[in-house]
Amino acid sequence: MGAPRPEIRARLDSLQQALEDTSGRQAGYPANLVYDYSALTPFLRYSLNNIGDPFHESNYQVNTRDIEREVVAAFADLVRLPREEAWGYVTSGGTEGNMYGLYLARKLHPDGIVYFSQDTHYSVLKNLSVLNMRNIMIKSQQNGELDYDDLYETVRIHRDTPVIVMANIGTTMTGAIDDLVRVQAIFEDLAITNHYIHADAALSGLILPFVDDPQPYGFDAGIDSISLSGHKVIGAPLPCGVVLTKRDYVNTVARSVEYLGTLDTTVPGSRSGFTPLILWYALEHYGHEGLRGLVGNMLDMAAYAVERFNERGIPAWRNRNSVTVVFPRPPDEVVQAWQLAPLGDIAHVITMPHVTRAMVDEIVDACAKQRLHGNMRGLR
Ligand SMILES: *Cc1c(COP(=O)(O)O)cnc(C)c1O
What we know:
- Helices cover 43% and strands 13% of the residues.
- It is built from 11 helices and 10 strands.
- The chain has helices spanning 6-23, 65-78, 94-108, 122-131, 148-157, 180-189, 231-235, 247-258, 274-311, 332-338, 357-379; strands at residues 86-91, 113-117, 135-138, 163-168, 195-200, 225-229, 241-246, 324-328, 341-343, 346-350.
- The protein starts with 5 loop residues before the first helix and ends with a helix.
- The site of pyridoxal-5'-phosphate (PLP) has 14 residues, from helix 3.
């Protein structure tokens, strides 16, 4: 295409400046903005496409399928799924991974009811509507975790129907982790034999493997599939994620379509061959120890933020092993200035690697000043 014309260049320059500005004041969304993938720039010259099942060859040879399989294997280790039993692919993000889990659950339990908490990510309701699956919303506790009593009672009423639980491994607003042991105790108590657990682990799925005392989150804790985001903890210039499940389950899905002459096991047809490369590069670059360090620093920063807020009399808190710091919703100008994610009367800061102590101090300061201001106005 050659060099861009001056007016195109000018437009790109102003866009880039705007993006530089907004990237520096982003504290409410769970995306790691610190990375350097410039070594991958040459690969933008190829029309990489991993169409179809990553574990089967394709006629389209400009692909990164072997790299993708390595990414799936590395993620399988993290979520405690033996590699030889693992199947998965690199998705466009957490939403697609959640859709895949529900799609599979429906293939295995066509009459199942999906149970999910009030704090579940909005992608789940949308996916349920797309898939037209019967579903029931369960109450949440104050910290964002499932209300197990409500789950028990609701499942009890529908004991004759397969149970599909959408478990949150880190809710969006408060980083709460649903207790997989308690969920399975409910299956046991009610003698439910047809059940399926999908874990929505968009953010915390890459935190828990690297902490000393994780809540149960993986296949060793009874899940059947899991969705993780790639652009959150790892950080990526293109949204992406990984979905993992057991190979046996996918064979059931695959067989029915193989009949039509293809092995069409993924949700999309054409899939990015570039995002697997990004994830592979990051995993190779960091290694387990590097990721452990990254996650440790994020958790330390979250602890620091809670302390600073509390020192100023603001009742901030976080769930265990979470980098999501929750506090009373500040006025809109503070929300805007730091791109905080508000919901009702709360807001949060997520201490991703680009969130520094200086940023935390500034945010706490802004919230404290506004509170003081608000209180004084109230007194007059
Ligand atoms: C971010 C998030 C998602 C959606 O992930 P996308 O990659 O944005 O599609 C799903 N669930 C939870 C809990 C999330 O935090």
